[in-house]
# Entry
Amino acid sequence: MLNEREVESCYLGQFIPVHYHHNMLMDDNRMKNFKAAISHAVRPGAKVLELGGGTGVLSWFAAANASKVWCVEYNPDLVKEARRFLALNQHGHKVEVIHADAFDYLPPEPVDVVICEMIHVAMLREKQVEVIEAFKQRYLQRFGGPLPLFIPEAVVMAVQPLQQDYSFEGYCAPIVQFQPHTLHPGTVEMAAPAVYSILDFSQPTDTLIRWEGSFRMQASGTLNALRFITKNILTILPQQSATIDWLNHYMVLPLAEPLRVTTGDEVHVSFQYRAGNSIASLQNAISAQVVGACIEADRAVAYA
# Structure
């Protein structure tokens, strides 16, 4: 019988289908940026740990320079896939795929780099923040400091108000959408994005994320959605004063009560959620309202 953590993991996406991980291999943006970051961060002879290894590809990137890589994966189907793929590739023998829970595992010796790519937009669903924090506590108790370098090193999250078209061949359906970074038809940006959280994994990180702030509307129309933007700073290049980043797809959440707004209106937005929780936990916590002395008493409108 599954314990509470296992039940939650299944529900929140820890056991997403194997073909989803295959699709991740075909994501050129993800693959190239992680390869570049790992190639830079993993020095020759380094020891590396990956928490949540999936198909093993990020561990394989590390194996090009590392002397040893421990790749921890909880999903037994992915453990088999990773072992099968690594056996087909040069340097794959340097990666040991371990069937274990990333919440509990510690490597047999100190490591130089930890890779943890349990990344979802807004840090929802997957348990990256909680896993890394738990790992840091276990690691310091066992080995002392310093902590290894983490990939990603940090995450920057922003939110942006939108007018989003929810008509699908005439069928009105306000749904959660994941959009590419290109201009999306039917999307009107009502104001510039605002950063609401920066997580630095070298420092203690709280799973509770909360924000409140105001936007000045740059267009008139119907504010009916918020776009959540997540930029993963995979590694920092101090000599170049640059970073290697990976930008998740945008996540657009419909508002429960759309607002009619006019250019210049001030809209107050607030929300809070815990990293790793469901998308609905954020969606249900969002509050948005027009504020100001000259604002009509009731700006709520129907989606249609």
